[in-house]
């Protein structure tokens, strides 16, 4: 999640020439939990061990590349290549989208699952870049790994939902939502209209976690709330990161959005600690945008719950 809160309309596009190497915009690719989506089997339990294995890979990539996975750095491209290889092997059609920001080349990764109505596209995404000061394992390896593992679960299940499924990993979020904004701005008005919803996952394993749900689209919001109610976990409306992550360009374009968040630099209140556990008077993530945002900076329970909620929403909203 980027550091400062700025409105979408107030952001300037990052400096430099913006160009697409391989842009997927046509939407024409062929081809105890709550009740499951009608017509589909129940959403699977996402193994948190698998999600953490991806985080271990992101950490190793950062360690081998100057300690970070930031935009324009070798660690970012290696992270993208890791995710892409997993998706290619699982039968997705992947597209790498190139842009320039702050004088460096950045990349988005888009992965389409064959089949479903391409006039109704459900997207789930996360930003893959870290800040330059650390490996970015919670921010946002956590969201990136959970979206990846959910996509792989779609493949394992041979899912055939009514809607077309598209997953995305964004570059240069930390510079001001550059990658996601580039993607949305590259879509024709017709292809924007084909996206029925975008789900965003940015920081879902904070070490002193809260359980926050975006309140943008009521259907998406209710879907996540239903899942957490089924677990007996209370939620709050997400406010700390409102407009600060990759759902903002989609929302600005009139696309329904929603998502999950476990907190960043704000302090957990006594009331929040009473209902969620953890430590009052301490930030949800004390390592936010710091070198200590490593694999040690993850709450497994929060990561597990949010990964399962992600899969539940994909199954529910795609059918």
Question: How would you describe this protein?
Answer:
By secondary structure, the chain is an alpha/beta fold. It is 35% helix and 17% strand. It has nine helices and eight strands. The protein has an eight-stranded mixed sheet, with helices on both faces. Helix 1 (48-64) runs antiparallel to helix 2, helix 1 crosses helix 3 and helix 3 (137-157) crosses helix 9. The protein starts with 47 loop residues before the first helix and ends with a helix. 55% of the residues are buried. Residues 3-38 have low confidence and may be disordered.
Observed structural traits:
319 residues, alpha/beta, 8 strands, 35% helix, 17% strand
Structural class by helix and strand composition: alpha/beta
Straight-line distance between termini: 30 Å
Low-confidence segments, given as residue ranges, are 3-38
Broad shape: globular
Largest sheet: 8 strands, mixed
SSE order, as H and E?
HHEEEHEHHEEHEHEHH
Roughly how much helix do the residues carry, as a percent range? 25-40%
What is the average of the pLDDT values?
Answer: 90
Based on CA atoms alone, the radius of gyration comes out at 18 Å
Number of strands: 8
Looking across the biggest beta sheet, what order are the strands in?
Answer: 1-2-4-3-5-8-6-7
Strand content: 15-25%
SS element count, helices: 9
């Amino acid at each position: 999640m980027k550091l400062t809160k700025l409105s979408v309309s107030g952001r300037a596009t990052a400096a430099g020439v913006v160009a697409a190497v391989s842009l997927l915009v046509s939407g024409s690719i062929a081809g105890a939990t709550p009740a499951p989506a009608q017509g589909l089997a129940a959403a699977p339990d996402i193994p948190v061990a698998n999600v953490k294995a991806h985080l271990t890979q992101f950490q190793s990539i950062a360690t081998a590349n100057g300690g970070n996975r930031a935009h324009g750095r070798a660690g970012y491209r290696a992270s993208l290549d890791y995710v892409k290889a997993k998706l290619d092997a699982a039968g997705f059609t992947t597209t790498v989208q190139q842009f320039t920001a702050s004088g460096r080349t950045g990349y988005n990764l888009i992965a389409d699952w064959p089949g479903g109505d391409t006039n109704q596209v459900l997207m789930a995404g996360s930003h893959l870049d870290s800040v330059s000061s650390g490996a970015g394992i919670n921010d946002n390896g956590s969201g990136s790994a959970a979206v990846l593992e959910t996509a792989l679960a779609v493949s394992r299940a041979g899912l055939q939902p009514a809607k077309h499924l598209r997953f995305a990993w964004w570059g240069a979020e930390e510079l001001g939502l550059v990658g996601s904004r580039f993607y949305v701005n590259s879509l024709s008005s017709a292809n924007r209209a084909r996206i029925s919803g975008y789900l965003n996952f940015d920081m879902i394993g904070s070490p002193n976690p809260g359980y926050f749900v975006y309140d943008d689209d009521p259907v998406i919001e209710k879907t996540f709330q239903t899942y957490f109610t089924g677990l007996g976990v209370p939620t709050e409306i997400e406010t700390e990161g409102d407009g600060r992550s990759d759902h903002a360009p989609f929302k600005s374009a009139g696309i329904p959005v929603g998502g999950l968040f476990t907190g960043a630099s704000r302090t957990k209140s006594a009331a929040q600690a009473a209902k969620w556990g953890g430590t009052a008077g301490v930030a949800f993530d004390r390592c936010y945008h710091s070198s200590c945002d490593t694999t040690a900076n993850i709450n497994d329970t929060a990561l597990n719950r949010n990964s399962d909620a992600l899969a539940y929403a994909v199954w529910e909203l795609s059918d």
